[in-house]
Design goal:
With 342 residues, the chain is an alpha+beta fold. The radius of gyration is 20 Å and the shape is globular. The two termini are 19 Å apart.
């Protein structure tokens, strides 16, 4: 079915008004600063808006892609068809526990740095390692983001997801009343690992034996399980100690992160080494393709030197993968998602 953006816009505008945009440049909404237009772009401020939009898209057979801050996404130059909705749910509260710890119950759109600052001000500690991590908690949970040998999953107690798997069956007409429910899962049910959760299963791009990007097929509603709330365990610590930790972590990140616009780490680190070391050994640090460049500071980053295209960035990703495979025999696994019309 062809997506009629005008029809969708007219139906959605009474509810979202100025938050609704047509032919929105996705380069404005990802860390790379690259990518073509979305047919429709909007920001979701509440869980109810998310639920209602998923149901409407399932009923109308409209493609829907739900994203966070775009910190580990590369959008295609041709953009994304259908609706792209950004999770902007940014509330959190602290529930103190009898054992002197606390649960931070945060919505998926909360940003790392703002949360850490708010917690440290109240003498709550446990997430300082995340200072400088771009993106949202929801996106961070999907990839089990981390730094300084710590991961978000280590602080996680439970999450709530909006489960839309019952809203659409491929090859059949959408149901009149889509099934969308909220489910709560403990940490143990998420199969958390190094830069991995079960929500990443089947979603990541990889490079095949012929050196071509293999991008997972997109469903009508993507992803079908949408993280909406996280509960994170924190503990008391004096503010001065937390600030000292944050300062040290920030200095380490500053030494590692390129100054130019970039996304997160392109590849996961293989066991016993780093993707940065392997790409550097392959002689690719500083390699350019158009206005994209493999960072000279850390070769596991690709930087945008100004108006880089998604195709240029993707070409460097493939070259780094293939050169490392040829020279070191290591099949690097990608850590970012490629989405859209490639």
């Amino acid at each position: 079915m062809t997506f009629e953006s005008t029809v969708a816009y007219n139906m959605l505008h009474p509810y979202f008004r100025q938050r609704l945009h047509v032919q929105e440049a996705l380069a404005q909404h990802d860390s790379f600063g690259a990518g073509g237009p979305a047919d429709i772009w909007l920001a979701l401020n509440t869980r109810q808006e998310l639920s209602d939009l998923v149901k409407l898209c399932a009923q109308q057979d409209w493609p829907l892609l739900v994203v966070g801050a775009g910190s580990n996404i590369l959008y295609a130059d041709a953009g994304v068809r259908g609706i792209v909705a950004s999770i902007a749910l940014q509330e959190y509260h602290i529930e103190e526990q009898p054992d002197a710890s606390a649960l931070v119950v945060a919505e998926a759109g909360v940003r790392w740095n703002s949360l850490i600052e708010g917690l440290v001000t109240r003498s709550w500690s446990g997430l300082e390692f995340g200072v400088g991590i771009p993106g949202t908690l929801g996106g961070g949970l999907v990839s089990n983001a981390g730094a300084h040998n710590q991961e978000l999953g280590q602080a996680l107690e439970w999450i709530e997801v909006l489960d839309a798997r019952g809203s659409f069956v491929e090859g059949k007409e959408p149901p009149v009343f889509p099934v969308v429910v909220i489910r709560r899962y403990p940490r143990e049910a998420l199969d958390l690992g190094y830069r991995y959760s079960r929500f990443r299963e089947g979603r990541l791009t990889h490079v095949d034996a012929q050196g071509k990007l293999v991008i997972p097929a997109r469903g009508l509603i993507e992803p079908t399980e949408l993280v909406v709330t996280l509960a994170l365990r924190v503990h008391k610590q004096d503010t001065a100690t937390s600030h000292a930790q944050i300062k040290n972590y920030a200095q380490e990140r500053k030494q590692d992160d390129p100054a130019q616009r970039h996304c997160g780490s392109i590849f996961k680190n293989p066991r016993g080494t780093t993707a940065h070391a392997l790409i550097t050994q392959a002689g690719l640090a500083g390699k350019k393709q158009g206005n994209a460049q493999i960072s000279e500071r850390n070769a596991n980053y690709i930087v945008n030197l100004g108006d880089a295209t998604a195709s240029d960035i993707a070409a460097l990703i493939v070259e780094a993968h293939q050169q490392v495979l040829a020279q070191s025999g290591v099949n690097l696994a990608m850590n970012i998602e490629l989405v859209g019309e490639w």
